[in-house]
Amino acid sequence: MKIKTIILIVSYLMIFQANAQKEAWKWYFERHNGLDFSGDTVKFLPGCQFGLSESSSSICDSSGNLLFYSNGITLYNKFNTIVKNGDDLGFPINTNETSSRQGTLLLKHPNNDSLIYLFCTDYQGKNGGLVYSVVNIHGNNDSGEVINKKVKLVSPVNEPIHAVNHQNGRDIWIICHGNNDNVFYLYLLTYRGLLDCSFVKFKGLYHTSAQVNLKFSSNGKLITQHISPWGHTETFSFDAESGVIGDSLYYNLSIAVPGFEYSANSHYLYLSQFDSGLAQIDLLTQKKIRIKNFDQGKVPQQIQLGPDGKIYGAIYQSRDLFVIDRPEMAGDSCKVLIKKNFLQNTSLTAMPNFNQSYFYTPSIDFKYEQNCISNEIQFWGKDTFKSTVHAWQIKKSGKPVEGSYTSKNISHTFSDTGKYEVSYIASNGNRQDTVIKTITIHSKINKQFLGKDTAYPIGTSFSKLLKAPANMHCVLWQDSSSLSSFIADTAGVYFCKIVNQSFCEVTDTIVISECNYSLDTPDLYRSGDTLFAVQADADSFVWYKNNQILTVTKLNFIRITDTGHYRVEAGRQGYCNKSSTVNWVKKLGLQTISLSDLGIRLYPNPGDGEVFISSDRAFQLEVFDITGKMIYKSENTESVLLNQGVYFFCFKVAGYSVSDKVIIY
Asked: Is residue 527 domain-shared with residue 510, that is, in the same domain?
């Protein structure tokens, strides 16, 4: 079966390096208990502020310092106080009952170290469903602040949620299961934030109980779910690139399993069973053996892989800590330990919930990020043995090698669509390791897929068909519709956000305006190094080079300094603009400069009022409206507040003049 192949590929690449992922160094869970993995051996961690809860999650920074922890209702910070707006984040029942099992999860934003996401589920499949909140780490004087609270994603769902990294090593998959159905819901947290569109997968057994267990393997290749109370357990293959849930193994254990966990090499699945026994399943052979018997009712409940490669759990109604010391070993060689009276208080069920990729520690791996406009991918190699020599090979099946590189971090632009095999090899003289990933390249996205801004004379009918690119994962128009096309028949600002099959997100905006009259087409001519536009009725001019705005001005001329394709658009308040184009050839080696080249960023664009400016150097700014009228002028400002409309931000930086269009809707 495919699952066997997956495990064989990865099991021998793993090394068990203690504390490889410091984000999981500090654990807080029910009844004021905690574990600290920052030293050579695990220690008890005091300070946990919540008591009874079968749901919890903790998260540290990359140095292992505690940031936040939660029981799914309240969010606490490193000072063990409630963060600002950090209460009522989940679904409290009452003071005498617990929260949802495995229903709390803290995740880092993949590209913003200041933001943390908290996901929570309602208990017993109630209508609250799956919600998330966004936390600013540095808010409220670095004690944390919830800035976006309890956003609903889907309902109803079962209690557990779990997460693992995308194959690219940067984005994060979040999974939950529908209630009273056989539907998995997958979401992707990317460098842009949480994608608006989910993945719906009809797979496996039909659920009738919300109190189930659900978990990824740390390598992202497997998903296991256990359905209470009948003892049915399923393990599925998982494609961490596409989000496809594939083949499954089915185990009818005839007994409920309150907790399970994979070994770090994803070779073994451990099950804590209500008949007071611990079982091990070899996922290569499907052989199940009983590892240990416990006193009646004293079985560990939820169990969790730790950053040291061991598996931990709390013995039911006990202060004892349960440990599988060598979970990558078969049978009794896995060595089960009981650390007597290790915890401060007796425990019931819970272990904290994490991004399972925190516990994936291969000797060699690589991350990547794709630009779907150009199909260029940035690759970052990493290893655990201080490699000094690096090599990459990029090859499409049946084709010659397309790219070979000898740096640790590279970029490559793919020449075609399809599946490519990307190999990264690292060595240090004594050792050489290789990791291979299959990456699917889809068609490039035209970032201006909606076409150009347009205008029509007042009093006339107008209709324009706006189309999203084909074969997208999801499409979202300004009216929240998700059709492949949209008919624009009135003046306004229209935008469409698309996510392709590589999960790149691109937004395009088109402005359709109504005008009283039409200007005559301007005449455009050249005199030396100057282009002149002649249009007597115009009061503003928008100059373009290679379809990029050069400047917006009341002047009817510009000085040209480079080879290119030039165009001018003449404008006047209440008139439809007209443009004229000239091709001008001169052998100069200067490059076209963009805002990003000068370290300037405008955001959000499009936006709803205030435009923020980020720059690491001094600049002069002039803002023009669509008619060419200057409405704002300043130096080194951090933001501009605007009404609805189309504007041109013109910057002068270090001798360069660069412009960009901004949409306010």
From this structure: no
Q: CA 656, CA 173: separation in Å to the nearest integer?
A: 42
In single-letter form, the type of residue at position 107 comes to L
Residue 591, domain member (yes or no): no
Neighbours of 515 (CB within 10 A): 18
Question: Do 150 and 178 belong together in one domain?
Answer: yes
Looking at residue 358, the DSSP 8-state letter turns out to be G
Give 511's Cβ-side CA count (13 Å radius): 16
**Would you list the DSSP string of 646-660?**
EEEEEEEETTEEEEE
Round to whole Å and give the CA distance between 202 and 180. Answer: 12
Helix/strand/coil percentages in the chain, nearest 5: 5, 50, 45
Distances from the Cα of 414 to the Cα of 191, 422, 442, 449, angstroms: 21, 11, 10, 21
In angstroms, the CA 101 to CA 317 distance is: 17
User: Looking up tokens 């935008």, which residue turns up?
Assistant: 495
CA dist., res. 90 & res. 130, Å (int): 9
| DSSP β-ladder status, 575-576 and 517-518 | parallel
Q: Which amino acid is at 288?
A: K
pLDDT score for 304? 95
- 283 and 164, same domain (yes or no): yes
Domain tally, the chain: 5
Pairing of strands 311-315, 75-77: unpaired
The answer to whether 234 touches 244, Cβ cutoff 8 Å, is no
**Tokens representing residue 423 in the block:** 């190999």
Residue 9 backbone phi and psi in degrees, to 5: -65, -40
| Containing structural domain, residue 622 | 596-664
| Mean per-residue pLDDT over the chain, rounded | 86
Of residues 135, 149, 71, 139, the one with CA closest to residue 107: 135
For 598, phi then psi, to 5°, come to -95, 5
Contacts of 17 (CB under 8 A, 6+ apart): 309, 361, 384
d(CA 149, CA 89): 7
pLDDT digits (tens, 9 = 90+) for 418-467: 999 999 999 998 899 999 999 999 999 999 999 988 888 888 888 999 99
Query: Which candidate, 143, 192, 173, places its Cα nearest to that of 242?
Result: 173
